[in-house]
Amino acid sequence: MSDADTSRRTFMTLAAAAPAAFATGSAASAQTAPFGPTALPGVGRAAVITGSSRGIGAATAKRLARDGFAVTVNYLTNRDLADRVVADIKAAGGRAIVRQADVADPAAVKALFDAHDQAFGGVDVVVNNAGIMNVGPFAQMTDAAFDRMMATNVKGSFNVLREAARRTRDGGRIISLSSSIIKTPPPATGAYAATKSAQMLFSSVLAKELAGRNISVNAVAPGAVDTQLLRQHGEAALRGIPEQTPLGRLGLPEDIAGVIALLCSRDGAWIDAQTVFANGGLG
Ligand SMILES: NC(=O)c1ccc[n+]([C@@H]2O[C@H](COP(=O)([O-])OP(=O)(O)OC[C@H]3O[C@@H](n4cnc5c(N)ncnc54)[C@H](OP(=O)(O)O)[C@@H]3O)[C@@H](O)[C@H]2O)c1
Questions:
Q1: Shortest-distance Cα residue to atom 43 of ligand 1
Q2: Residues 130, 51: Cα–Cα separation, whole Å
Q3: Is the pLDDT of residue 27 over 70?
Q4: Which of ligand 1's atoms lies nearest the C-alpha of 225?
Q5: Structural domains in the chain (count)
Q6: Which residues fall in a coiled-coil region (predicted)?
Q7: Please, which of 52, 53, 128, 210 could form a disulfide with 73 given CB 3.0 to 4.6 Å?
């Protein structure tokens, strides 16, 4: 038998065994269906998405619910928007709860995961999405703007990933929102880009710490996406982006939700410890 034949046979054997490799370790989750190409990937599984009252988080919550996940929707201040996301999910036949929590507060994050576990029996996917964008040149950025962004984006991510590391069931997925801006950050984005670089590093390290449990840990790095995060900085923040983007438009929250859904699917199973850039070719 040639080396190529041997490799093919080995691959086929592994492929045939793949569903078992996706089975979860705990007694409760061992009975749930594995992520599969034909079945809905989320059936019997549950996801926590931080910052899912609007923007990328809301689109992700709806998409994962559509894929079969029971989801916990989290918000900071916009209860009405979060309630609407949950109502949309339920109207489409999905399962969802809503919980307020400031990700910068470790006790609040723990309570968020406790509420999720109580409602759905455990967590298989954590999307560490909540984030803010304060911009300004070094010479002008205030301590308050810098500290709040660090507290939300870096300490908040740490708080969420620590709970994720402790609670995510074997076979799960942990995904953090980085940004394409980390490749070539323009002036006035130094502090924000630093917080988004942290997502890449956190994911890379946590993936190694969770080795052996079939939990993939990745970051997704969107380019400019049409959400409040950008629009709060005025139309100027969006000017010229579609023209400079090879795919010819601004990103939509659903574009990024699709990438996250891919990582949560069977087809995304071999992607681990990576930062996936999703930006229409810009950056
Ligand atoms: N939009 C982009 O162009 C872009 C590009 C690259 C990366 N990203 C990243 O993608 C993520 C989502 O961005 P987005 O554009 O969807 O933002 P967005 O529309 O401004 O939504 C932010 C979400 O985070 C929540 N949030 C903010 N601070 C929080 C806190 N301390 N605790 C809990 N939740 C909090 C907000 O809740 P409330 O509604 O209650 O305030 C909201 O649900 C962020 O991490 C961002 O850095 C965005």
A1: 51
A2: 4
A3: no
A4: 3
A5: 1
A6: none
A7: 52
In a domain, 167, yes or no: yes
150-209 pLDDT, tens digit each = 999 999 999 999 999 999 999 999 999 999 999 999 999 999 999 999 999 999 999 999
Does the beta carbon of 132 lie inside 6 Å of ligand 1? yes
Ligand 1 atom 45: residue of nearest CA:
131
Pairing verdict, β 46-49 and 70-75: parallel
Is 224:256 a contact under the CB 8 Å cutoff?
no
On the CB side of 28, how many CA atoms lie within 13 Å of its CA? 11
Q: Measured from the CA of 102, which atom of ligand 1 is nearest?
A: 32
The CATH number of the domain where 178 resides is what? Answer: 3.40.50.720
Whether 17 has a pLDDT exceeding 80, the answer reads no
Q: Identify the domain containing residue 118 by its residue range.
A: 41-222+252-274
Q: Which atom of ligand 1 is nearest to the CA of 232?
A: 20
Q: Tell me, what's the pLDDT at 283?
A: 80
Structural domain includes residue 185: yes
Which has the closest alpha carbon to 47: 131, 117, 107? 117
Give the model's confidence band at 41: pLDDT under 50 very low, under 70 low, under 90 confident, else very high.
low
Mean pLDDT to the nearest integer, 130-138? 98
What are the angstrom distances between the C-alpha of 113 and each of 90, 97, 161?
20, 12, 11
pLDDT given for residue 119 in this prediction: 98
From the list 192, 203, 269, 276, the catalytic residue is 192
